[in-house]
Fold this sequence. Notes:
Helix content is 79%, strand content 0%. The chain contains 12 helices and no strands.
Amino acid sequence: xxxxxxxxxxxxxxxxxxxxxxxxxxxxxxxxxxxxxxxxxxxxxxxxxxxxxxxxxxxxxxxxxxxxxxxxxxxxxxxxxxxxxxxxxxxxxxxxxxxxxxxxxxxxxxxxxxxxxxxxxxxxxxxxxxxxxxxxxxxxxxxxxxxxxxxxxxxxxxxxxxxxxxxxxxxxxxxxxxxxxxxxxxxxxxxxxxxxxxxxxxxxxxxxxxxxxxxxxxxxxxxxxx
Length: 226
């Protein structure tokens, strides 16, 4: 988890600094990161707050941004079924993109889900996210124009790092290629929705290829048994 967590430090610094710049107190900014613990949702919410948006638009925006966690939780459901409610709630709290990626990789590697591994990786990221936010809060109070340093590139870099090892699987590679190409081609015509449509297209292609690959593997397995 450490490489992904360290890569997110610039992202956390940007989030903490932005919170100060839009009028949050240092305590409010720090508690937001410790309790909300969702970088993309925090940045979106802070930006909309600065623009004077109301509660419901901010809630709707952050819900859409965080909706990918519904897919993560569906995958994790089979792992946590049977655990106590406090354990499931704790697992849900630290279920981030990074925790999901490393935990699922560990599960595939060893063939069994390890709750200790998942929780320790999740809380490692939570701790470093809080530290990086604290750095951003301090920087936001003493350093101007932090957003000009390009710290927001850490967001893209982190997701690229999480996906890179999976590109050896053709459905994942096709998903990335299709969604990336579609976002570029659709942007001139649909500037407000090209990312959403490109994402849906990529997921549909990836799902179809994954199902086809699974069917071929099952057919090959049955043929071998015969």
